[in-house]
């Protein structure tokens, strides 16, 4: 059985790499660069983007506190397309990142002149977890970013890193079982609840939003996932023609054990009947490794990444 090691990164397809890089680096302080890919052809992704000559530029970076890495990808070939006029919390797929901050209210006051916040800060009491203060904003291309603060997410400086990635799903219980059974998320960080119902109308597209969610963690590593089902309004499905590299959140990437066998991991999922977007691909750069892509029950792309040394 595959044993997961948490979330490594989340990827976004962007229209303007330099403008988006400036927002995340200069305003949200994503200054730790993991890797910076120059514009070039990257054959290892030809299966994923469905073209033999994929060309793109990208940067992977995170905040000083660590946390999940954000990858910004600007495709050149194939030419990316806008899939949505506006991204909503209820849309099926990867829809947000959640950044821990020292104090949501203070951050809101500091950044409201330079960040497109969706509302003023709000609070919710989550059973068994406590008070959660949160606010949403949109980055320059409309992607949702959530900021949270509370006793259960202690932060020493201004930012505490991306703690989890939010996935909107069509069947909450099915997705929880899938991520626990197959992807190694064996710990409930936040138990099932509906405490955000009625508080996320500005980002769901309708008043009186009803939503249930939980946050799953891996006991082996950091990098969590929030799974949630928006019961009202129901989410829009992933567009049929959506392609990796189009604008918006693209995928969630999970860590494999360093030095692990990517072919063995892929073989396990194949025996379990999973649908693949690509078979194992080897990387031959300074961070030698391997990866493959598959789909979760809703068709959301999930990447598995193993570093060989």
CATH class of one domain: Alpha Beta
Strand composition percent: 35-45%
Number of helices: 6
**Helicity level:** 10-25%
Mean pLDDT: 94
Question: Could you explain how this protein is built, in words?
Answer:
The chain is of the alpha+beta class. The protein has a domain at 7-80 and 239-307: 2,3-Dihydroxybiphenyl 1,2-Dioxygenase, domain 1 (Roll). The chain contains 6 helices and 17 strands. Strands 5, 6, 7, 8, 9, 10, 11, 12 and 13 form a 9-stranded mixed β-sheet that branches. Strands 2-3-4-1-14-17-16-15 form an 8-stranded mixed β-sheet. A hairpin with a 5-residue loop joins strand 16 (289-295) and strand 17. The longest helix has 11 residues, at 17-27. The mean pLDDT is 94.
Draw up the topology in text.
Blueprint (H helix, E strand, L loop, with lengths): L6 E7 L3 H11 L4 E10 L4 H4 L5 E9 L2 E12 L15 E9 L2 H8 L4 E2 L4 E5 L3 E9 L5 E6 L9 E10 L3 H10 L5 E7 L7 H4 L5 E9 L2 E12 L15 E8 L6 H10 L4 E8 L5 E7 L5 E7 L2
Parallel strand pairs: 1-4, 5-9, 10-13, 14-17
Antiparallel strand pairs: 1-14, 2-3, 3-4, 5-10, 6-8, 7-8, 8-9, 11-12, 12-13, 15-16, 16-17
Task: Give the key terms.
44% strand, alpha+beta, single chain, globular, 309 residues, 2,3-Dihydroxybiphenyl 1,2-Dioxygenase, domain 1, 17 strands, 6 helices, eight-stranded mixed β-sheet, nine-stranded mixed β-sheet
In short:
The chain is an alpha+beta fold. 15% of the residues lie in helices and 44% in strands. It has helices at residues 17-27, 46-49, 104-111, 172-181, 201-204, 262-271; strands spanning 7-13, 32-41, 55-63, 66-77, 93-101, 116-117, 122-126, 130-138, 144-149, 159-168, 187-193, 210-218, 221-232, 248-255, 276-283, 289-295, 301-307.
